[in-house]
Amino acid sequence: MAIRILDIIISLFGLLILGPMLPVIALLIKVDSRGPIFYRCNRVGKGGRIFQMFKFRTMYSTPVDLGPSVSPQGDP
């Protein structure tokens, strides 16, 4: 129980520190490239429970040719 309380306190402290920067990050993402600001996907949590995760988009919406792929040939 003490570890859970410590996790919550540290998380709240992190949000207080990073909270003012989140709108700035969102604005920079919107100015830098077209597309949504957030990326949303389903993840599997504890006990196999599915939840939605939101995070700032860090990839381009459309593929950008960066050279040869590191994936094996035929990998979808």
Taken from the alpha-carbon principal axes, the silhouette is flat
Helix content: 25-40%
Count of extended strands: 2
The N- to C-terminal Cα distance equals 44 Å
Number of helices: 2
Largest sheet: 2 strands, antiparallel
β-strand amount: 15-25%
Which helices and strands, and how do they pair?
Blueprint: H1 2-18, H2 22-32, E1 38-44, E2 50-56
Antiparallel strand pairs: 1-2
Could you give a quick summary of the protein structure above?
The protein is of the alpha+beta class. It has helices at residues 2-18, 22-32; strands at 38-44, 50-56.
Summary keywords:
76 residues; alpha+beta; two-stranded antiparallel sheet; flat
Describe the structure.
By secondary structure, the protein is α+β, with helices and mostly antiparallel strands. 37% of the residues lie in helices and 18% in strands. It contains two helices and two strands. Strands 1-2 form a two-stranded antiparallel ribbon. A hairpin with a 5-residue loop joins strand 1 (38-44) and strand 2. The mean pLDDT is 85.
